[in-house]
Protein: YigZ family protein
Amino acid sequence: MKDTYKTITKASEEVLFKDRNSKFFGYAFPVKNEEEIEAHLQELRSKHHKARHWCYAWQLGKEEQNFRYRANDDGEPSNSAGMPIYGQIQSFEVTNILIVVVRYFGGVKLGVGGLINAYRTAAQMALENSEIIQRTIDEVFVVKFDYPEMNKVMQVIKQNNLNVIDQILEIDCKIYISVRKNEAGEIFSKFDNTYKVEISKIED
Structure:
């Protein structure tokens, strides 16, 4: 089972593709939700307030079955802008990403084929100009136990090199751990079978 995904770590540098006096500025942004997407779009509409079109595509989610996406032609002929941009998101296999291509019209119509090529190329340039990284899909668990059981719990954490993301160590202890999805079942069993220790999954 695949438990990794690809994304970008920071916004790309601005790229520019030109065709018959039309200018296409391409941008790629890492995003976690639709609020962040809208903020980036507003920022670019403000920055390029004299542009004709602000076309974009985005995809959110870490696993294919949970992907959400949108492609927007923003006034260009149907499927001539948003889908070619989204096609590059699919081609580079990235997610949690927004790509925007801003067009300044140069006075010469490019035709649907010319537009598809221009938007696809600007999106491709933006992605080529981004640092793409691979991340693991993780599940988060909380391990609950009384203080005297601390050594047993820490031994399991140490032996399996687990990532502790938070802990409350009082009379009633809680340790929050992050585990790669493919290893989650095995780690759950180890704690679940440990006397006087409880483990439960934290839902997103």
About this structure: The chain has two domains: 4-134, 137-202. The first strand starts at residue 4 and ends at 8.
